[in-house]
Amino acid sequence: MFALPTQRLVILASAFGLFLAADSVLAYKQFQDAFVEMYLDEHPDADFVKMCRKKAKCNICHQGKKKHNNNPYGEAFVGKLTKKDRKDEEKIVQALLDVGGLKANPDDENSPTYAELIASSKLPAGDLDSVKQEPENDEHDAKGK
């Protein structure tokens, strides 16, 4: 007799979890591998490459420790890549090219693009300390409470 309400609760909780994840780009190895190949494999600054690979890692696109928090560079991928695109190399590369061509500060016509920042040995969303810092307002945590 109690199975039906429990099943409904599980279904509602699952649907809510999908809702929370729907607006973020998830972290998949294939996305990171394509970024590394495009921007780091032939980058002339070995120290920058090492910092990206060893220290920045997921924080190139994500803010803080939780992968559902995107930094501004990661936000630019929202709607461009989904879980289904993990094996679509062309779509991943195209998304990297599209986002790379965007101004890091869209309100400043003189702002460098994300690709230009990376080429000049800068993380696309700010310095290492700022991208590793937890966001002040974690919307996903607020929605879950």
UniProtKB/TrEMBL annotation:
<feature type="region of interest" description="Disordered">
    <location>
        <begin position="102"/>
        <end position="145"/>
    </location>
</feature>
<keyword id="KW-0732">Signal</keyword>
<protein>
    <recommendedName>
        <fullName>Cytochrome c domain-containing protein</fullName>
    </recommendedName>
</protein>
<feature type="compositionally biased region" description="Basic and acidic residues">
    <location>
        <begin position="129"/>
        <end position="145"/>
    </location>
</feature>
<feature type="signal peptide">
    <location>
        <begin position="1"/>
        <end position="27"/>
    </location>
</feature>
